[in-house]
Amino acid sequence: MQMSQMLEPVLNDFRKAAEAHRQMRAYARQTLQPGVKLWDWVCDLEERGRMMLGTSGINHSESGLAFPTGVSINNCAAHYTPNPNDQRVLQEGDVVKVDIGTHVNGHIVDSAFTVSFSPMYDAVVRASFEGTWAGIKAAGPDARLVEIGNVIDETISSFEVEIGGKIHKVRPIENLCGHGLGTYMVHCDVSIPIVKNGCDPSIKLEEGKTYAIETFASTGKGKVHDVSDCSHYKMIPGSEARIDQIRNQKAKELLRFIIRNFKTLAWCRRWLDIGGEKQHALALKYLVDNEYVEAYPPLCDREGSIVTQHEHSIYLKPTGKEILSYGPDETVP
Question: 232-294: which CATH topology?
Answer without folding.
Answer: Arc Repressor Mutant, subunit A (1.10.10)
